[in-house]
Design goal:
- The chain is mainly alpha-helical.
- The chain has a domain of 104 residues.
- It contains five helices and no strands.
- The longest helix is centred in the first third of the chain and has 43 residues.
Amino acid sequence: MDPAMSQAYGVAGAVVCLGMSAAGSAMGTGVAAASAVGAWKKCYAQNKSAPFLLLSFVGAPITQTLYGMILMFTMFGKAQAGLPLLVLGAFSGLAIGLSAYYQGKAGAAAADAQAETGQGLTNYLAALGIIETVAIFTMVFTLIAIGKISG
């Protein structure tokens, strides 16, 4: 394959990885934020204080963008590998992005439950942490795979 085209595929894989990770973060934070706003509205309607800590549920999915960025910069160093990097970037970005989206959905439920009951914070954060682990594992295993790519 032409080296310039191979390089382009490798760079595309890196950018796709970041893009899909960030898209998942955007969707996850959006879902969680909408729920937190609704939970705060319920609190205000009941003349209860609105718990600021709901922002922890909203912000949880943003870290997946960071994982995608770490992979992107690592992939740039191996961009000449070409098509394998494009495939690796697409699948790892998808996995990380889905982790962010589902973490946001769980964060939305946690925000609603925390605002309504004022209880369970540790349990909710633990559940979000388990979902986060999928993204961390994906990042680590992808870094290992990138290390195995020659070029």
